[in-house]
Specification:
globular, 379 residues, Rossmann fold, Helicase, Ruva Protein, domain 3, alpha/beta
């Protein structure tokens, strides 16, 4: 049996488009090596299948395969989840804990939504890729990990690098091999077979017998853009199967139930690095976000002054007016916004004996944001 056909059967992959076959062939070819792999594709396109193909056809296939959704883990606990922690290293660390990298030693770890990792965690991940070394949270003992890393994202990482949200050195280490998963709109020849497979599955689920499908339905399905890809087609097929009458799926039913283009306008699609980016729009968004952050910081500063009656020595004189917020009168050297924020965080942590959840509540920010700022300021 042809290896490509065998892999498709093992992983229940339907379709025979050239772009799909090319992606599978790359996964098969790279599997016997220990190269890191970056999988890129839109949400719902089936990226999660390819790490399994790589692992199942590698020399590590008898070792652990662990899949981690980086976007589903809070920023304050992501390092502990990935690398483990020592007892007492932070509030709630009541015992030593192994991380995913320790559990997956000698095997494969799949980091889905890699673009969601905080910058501090990206630095730790880079060290593992370069030397196989890492530290548990709260430990000074260096540990080694023999592990293969496969990552996936639906975002344009090159754009994130330009925005300062992703490390370029980590990207180049992860991107030893790049597998691009085609969106469903670029696999139109596969839509019919996928639709029929889903119809069969849901007919069994809902105890229905679909005997007639209007052939003109497939023309409608193939012309639709499918912004949610295979996942959207599957959900749509379930709906059609449930609504079908007289064991028939008609053209009119498909046309009526297909979402209108404007209903999918909020779906964020992956942009390939070759696509043009409107720099003016990005700059405008950046300025708006900066203004919002400054307003939030001003509010936090005023609230802390109101609550704690902070005396900013020599640097600032607090001038209060009737029924108004305190005004800061800068008589000497001005502190930067970052230094003001850093000092306020230090004072709040000291006041509450480093209980971050209480400090975050008093600062008026989320605990996750506080964790990030503690890392940013090396507090």
């Amino acid at each position: 049996m042809d290896n490509l056909v065998k892999i498709k059967r093992q992983n229940n992959i339907l379709g025979n488009s050239n772009k799909l076959n090319q992606a599978i062939n790359i996964a098969i070819q790279v599997a016997p090596t220990d190269l890191s792999v970056l999988i890129i594709g839109e949400s719902g396109s089936g990226k999660d299948i390819f790490p399994k193909i790589v692992h199942q056809n590698s020399k590590r296939k008898h070792e652990n395969f662990i899949a981690v959704n980086c976007g589903a883990i809070p920023e304050g606990t992501i390092d502990s989840e990935l690398f483990g922690h020592e007892k007492g290293s932070f509030t709630g660390a009541i015992e030593n804990r192994k991380g995913y990298f320790e559990f997956a030693d000698k095997g494969t770890i799949f980091l889905d939504e890699i673009a969601e990792l905080p910058m501090s965690t990206q630095a730790r991940l880079l060290r593992i890729l370069e030397s196989g070394e890492y530290f548990k949270v709260g430990s000074s003992i260096c540990q080694k990990s023999d592990i293969r890393i496969i990552a996936a994202t639906n975002k344009n990482i090159e754009q994130l690098i330009r925005e300062g949200k992703f490390r370029s050195d980590l990207y180049y280490r992860l991107n030893s091999i790049n597998i691009n998963i085609p969106p469903l709109r670029e696999r139109t020849e596969d839509i019919k077979i996928l639709f029929l497979k889903f119809i069969n599955d849901f007919s069994i689920k809902y105890n229905k017998t679909i005997e007639n499908i209007d052939e003109t339905c497939f023309d409608l399905l193939e012309k639709y853009n499918w912004p949610g890809n295979i996942r959207q087609l599957k959900n749509f097929t379930e709906k059609i199967c449930a609504l079908s009458e007289n064991n028939t799926i008609s053209y009119d039913t498909i046309k009526k139930e297909l979402p209108k283009p404007q209903e999918a306008k909020d779906v964020v699609l992956y942009q390939s690095p070759s696509e043009n980016v409107n720099e003016r729009e990005l700059l405008y968004k950046f300025l708006i976000d900066m203004k919002h952050d400054l307003n939030q910081l001003k509010k936090v500063t005023y609230d802390i002054i109101d609550k704690q009656n902070i005396n900013i020595e020599e640097k600032h004189e607090i001038v209060k007016t009737n029924n108004t917020k305190p005004e800061l009168n800068y008589e000497k050297e001005s502190l930067s916004i970052e230094e003001n924020e850093k000092n306020l965080i230090k004072k709040a942590l000291k006041k509450h004996n480093n209980k971050r959840n209480i400090a975050a509540e008093e600062l008026g920010i989320s605990e996750r944001t506080l964790y990030r700022k503690i890392n940013d300021y090396n507090l």
